[in-house]
Amino acid sequence: MPRPLEPVSQSTRITLGISFFVLFVAAWAFATLGGFVSRTFLADPITMVQDGWLLLTRFGFLSDIGVTVWRVVGGFILAAIIAVPLGILMGAYKTFEAFLEPFVSFARYLPASAFVPLLILWAGIGEMQKLLVIFIGSVFQIILMVAVAVGNTRRDLVEAAYTLGSSDRGVVRRVLIPANAPEIAEILRLVLGWAWTYVIVAELIGSSSGIGHMIIDSQALLATGQMIFGIIVIGIIGLISDFLFKAFNRKLFPWRLA
User: Fold this and answer.
1) What pLDDT, on a 0 to 100 scale, did the predictor assign at position 166?
2) Where is the chain membrane-spanning (predicted)?
3) Quick one: pLDDT band at residue 7, thresholds 50, 70, 90?
4) What's the start-to-end Cα distance of the chain, in Å?
């Protein structure tokens, strides 16, 4: 047994990660191909791959994937543009925090799915409604997490800046933001993962395209292979975006690894 918190090599990490997926697919195949679970309720891996290939080659599923990616990225960027500055202000200035924090703490517990009926009334069933669902699901989380990160900045850095004659605005610009930039980037990476859960909620109602729309259509046909394929595609895209975000953060903030 490994010791608690003992690091593992990169090759071991990759091997163990792949092993879990292999065991998962093997258990899935055993349950479905072995007849323990009805294929009406859970398609086997072979059927899922065949249905996925048909979706990609005959039913234009690539365009649905593109639409969903656009919605996630668009809603997330809108949320980040507004949330990051507000979070920095809340973390830096306690009066601003006292003014906004109660509402932000309240709003972050509101499920984005609960706003879908209202957003359809306000924005219709077009792209704006779907972007707003992702925006609402992401913006309050980012604000609060960024505010906490900035508020926990080492006080000796701030005091040193004041000792060297920095102004209040200079402390924010030259100390608080650079010191917390890696943490803010990590927060954005985490919330981007949450945004993928909100887009499916946005696409379940009043949508004519996207991965969520395909899943709902497949449900009506009891095509569980297509449904599972859509879910797996979301996971793969999310995993790719997560790896890209991590690589970008390592490139942009190499000192964070120290």
Assistant:
1) 79
2) 12-31, 69-93, 105-125, 131-150, 195-216, 228-248
3) confident
4) 28
Interaxial angle between packed helices 224-252 and 45-58, expressed in degrees from 0 to 180 and rounded to the nearest 10: 80
Show the domain range for 78: 46-253
- pTM reported for the whole predicted model: 0.86
Inter-residue contact 108 to 144 (CB < 8 Å): yes
What residues have CB less than 8 Å from 63, skipping those under 6 apart?
A: 209
CATH of the domain at 152: 1.10.3720.10
**Would residue 8 count as lying in a domain?**
no
Residue for token pair 């946005």: 202
Q: Is 202 exposed, middle or buried (0-12, 13-18, 19+ CB in 10 A)?
A: buried
pLDDT tens digit string along 212-233?
A: 889 888 888 888 999 999 999 9
Band of the pLDDT at 6, cuts 50, 70, 90? confident
Total domain count, the chain: 1
Q: Give the phi and the psi of residue 37 in degrees, each rounded to 5.
A: -130, 135
In a domain, 152, yes or no: yes
Q: What are phi and psi of 39, to 5 degrees?
A: -70, -15
Q: Which two tokens stand for residue 237?
A: 């895209």
Please report, as a single letter, which amino acid is at residue 133.
V
Closest CA to 219 of 206, 202, 233, 204: 204
Work out the number of other CB atoms within 10 angstroms of the CB of residue 58.
8
Work out the burial of residue 24: count CB atoms within 10 Å of its CB; fewer than 13 is exposed, 13-18 middle, 19 or more buried. exposed
Neighbours of 120 (CB within 10 A): 15
CA distance 189 to 186: 5
Instruction: Tell me if 142 sits within 8 A of 211, measured CB to CB.
Output: no
Q: Compute CA distances 162 → 23, 88, 149, 253, whole Å.
A: 57, 19, 20, 25
